[in-house]
Amino acid sequence: MNKIVSSKRKKSKKIILEKFLKKNMNWIILLIMVLFLSLVTDSFLTARNLSNLIRQSTIVGIIAVGMTGVILLGGVDLSVGSIVGLAAVTVTLLMEKGLNEWISIILTLIFVGGLIGYWNGYWISRYKMEPFIVTLGMMTIARGLALTISKNSSIPVKNENFTKIAGSYISIKWSIILLSICLLYILIEVTYYAIKKREVLKNKSYIKNTLLKIFGILLLFLIFIMYKGIPNPVAIFSVIIIISIFILNNTKFGRDIYAAGGNREAARLSGIDIDKVHMKVFIITSVLAAFSGIILASRLNGASPSLGNMMELDAITAVAIGGTSLSGGIGGTFGTLLGIFIISILNNGMSLLGLPESYQLIIKGLIITMAVWGDIVSKNKKYHK
């Protein structure tokens, strides 16, 4: 009898441990990476390095926000990296021709981001072509266009107002205001769910996630005030993240994305216009990729047709690591945000350690493989249960 009780306790402890590791694996990985890089390098934990790391992560981060929607639908967009390069080249060329920086940005978002997104969405929704094939073709087309219009050469930016978009920092005063807005948003979210679902305060998972959000925001704020303030790209990225979380969690469009990705036929029968959802998501993703290219051109004070190369790999990896199922229907922006931090720290760490780019690509490829494997194993366990 005692042996049976002891065996049940061991199994119970094993199940609890498995659940804990599954829920918190990304946080554990993040902590291990930070501790390791802190021990083997002298510069990782400096305010300057951490501030620059987070600022640089916004480029891929903005792309990954759009990619989250695509992957939630069970698709993938391979064209985003090439869109970054084409948008960067386009906006710099327009300014070189004498156009105002804001007009150049708007035209680039419309005619690069909007049109490419519409093109991808049209073939996918109208002719039911696989997103992988359509966006693979667009990846090649967009890169070819970038090479053609730039004449395969770098284009410098001479517009100081444009370079300030990504090169400037928000003052400490406005940083505090932005911090207050973020904390206020969390308070409103908690209040909303507390009213809507009265049992929310008993939900340990929800409380844990809320506390992690608050801790993360305060930690980031501390890093930034120790070095110049909040970079403009980080402020822009924060707004995009908040909007994305709100749309996915609180709007019909967000619910339609989850429904279409989870079970397309059931979603269609319930009256959801699947084609329209696909069209919107691919347009948004392309516009965000174009916007990312504009910010990158601003940060680098110029553009070249090779910009954005392999960024789709980082974006997909961040989304997969963040827990969004590659078969669709499960995941979200908050998980992607965590995935972005992991990928950014990984990239930063590999650079600090002096690893060749070839090794970095191998490591990223292995990470994607493991993320997909984990997704398959998780689904198989649910299926067998």
Automatic annotation (TrEMBL):
Molecular function, one GO term: transmembrane transporter activity
Topology term for the membrane: Multi-pass membrane protein
Domain of life of the source: Bacteria
Residues annotated as transmembrane: 53-73, 102-120, 132-150, 170-194, 206-227, 233-249, 277-298, 318-346, 358-376
Entry GO terms, CC: plasma membrane
CDD domains associated with the record: TM_PBP1_transp_AraH_like
Keyword field: Cell inner membrane, Cell membrane, Membrane, Sugar transport, Transmembrane, Transmembrane helix, Transport
Location relative to the cell: Cell membrane
Function: Part of the binding-protein-dependent transport system for D-xylose. Probably responsible for the translocation of the substrate across the membrane.
PANTHER family: ABC TRANSPORTER PERMEASE PROTEIN YPHD-RELATED-RELATED, XYLOSE TRANSPORT SYSTEM PERMEASE PROTEIN XYLH
Descriptive protein name: Xylose transport system permease protein XylH
